[in-house]
Amino acid sequence: xxxxxxxxxxxxxxxxxxxxxxxxxxxxxxxxxxxxxxxxxxxxxxxxxxxxxxxxxxxxxxxxxxxxxxxxxxxxxxxxxxxxxxxxxxxxxxxxxxxxxxxxxxxxxxxxxxxxxxxxxxxxxxxxxxxxxxxxxxxxxxxxxxxxxxxxxxxxxxxxxxxxxxxxxxxxxxxxxxxxxxxxxxxxxxxxxxxxxxxxxxxxxxxxxxxxxxxxxxxxxxxxxxxxxxxxxxxxxxxxxxxxxxxxxxxxxxxxx
Amino acid sequence: xxxxxxxxxxxxxxxxxxxxxxxxxxxxxxxxxxxxxxxxxxxxxxxxxxxxxxxxxxxxxxxxxxxxxxxxxxxxxxxxxxxxxxxxxxxxxxxxxxxxxxxxxxxxxxxxxxxxxxxxxxxxxxxxxxxxxxxxxxxxxxxxxxxxxxxxxxxxxxxxxxxxxxxxxxxxxxxxxxxxxxxxxxxxxxxxxxxxxxxxxxxxxxxxxxxxxxxxxxxxxxxxxxxxxxxxxxxxxxxxxxxxxxxxxxxxxxxxx
Lengths: 257, 257
Hints:
homodimer; alpha/beta; Stationary-phase Survival Protein Sure Homolog, Chain: A; 9-stranded mixed beta sheet; two-stranded antiparallel sheet; globular
């Protein structure tokens, strides 16, 4: 039976990475596109309940039909899975994001939280992100990323995903023939280098940028950060249960009077 | 040495739950308040990088000095920990939220993601939420919640928190003398009952509400949902590592060609 695949992202409906993903996914099933009408990077796992959402139809560069909402990526997934379209979906894929989503990025990332939203609704979700060096001019070549997306999604369609689990796929900035292959990894450690920049506006009032250098990471073997640094595509299964199981017994011994 | 405690929330700086928490925390240390200037419920783990943030000074009902920013709860934590204030903080507490944050709520919740932001920055974080029945008129009595906050924070100050771990505390809607005590729990399962409501505006264009009934949960023993349903305060240690460790070996056997 034909698989029905929802494609979304957090860079916005007109991002070249979304089109590259949609085109690749058409080899695997019937594709519907519903994505934000603007960039939502760093926007987190949003559930918009205090305002209504709009949906507009777009044409992408290749003539593809696409829909865009004024909500977050996770709202787009909600709209699609709650019935904006008549069809039921077998899979939600999100990306291809401009920039890797590694380590602690995953709870900030609109790309990853879109896949979370799918999993919460009972539909497998796959997030795809391409590591892109700062200052790179768009559009980049998405050939390697589209290949990674196809392999990951073929696997998910063949094997399914465990309950409450999504796949977070990150692709290094390499040509397809330079890729060393895939690594199944755990979430590594991001190192943020944020700094507060205070500036003064023309009316003499201060304002504050969360500035500083781009985040780096600890390239430990076995982690998402490590895999990318070695030229591998990283595939991390992530779960929605955040319980710190190893801390449970210790915290239980505290004095809860 | 006096402990320095940052108090924030996601209901906004003027929420009564924030003031109740701040007053209680003054028994444990020196309190600074920096919270959003509006309600951010369901706003997710935000990192605002595409615009600058403003900070304004407020006076709370009891005369307390407070600061409010136009960023998300996690942005408020960033501002405070990156140096908006001269002092370093020993702890970030977030709440007391209007409404429980259980199960899958944790990645949507501004209350919980504020504590996440603290932990990412290396400072222990505690999120506090009060289960409030729909239709309850504010302000409610925060006595029981303030008591729960004090016990939880005393424990964190005494024992510390494991790395990459925050505490998610939920309080049932009971009088203090009706509380059965504390339970250290794992994250349970929320059941969302969302439904898409299509409406037509005066200009004949459709718009969409994410509607439906309020979420419920599976009141399984040992979980946050279960503890609240039995009249206990729930204390869940949550971690920032989302790796689905039990899925790693299975996913590794897939065909990664």
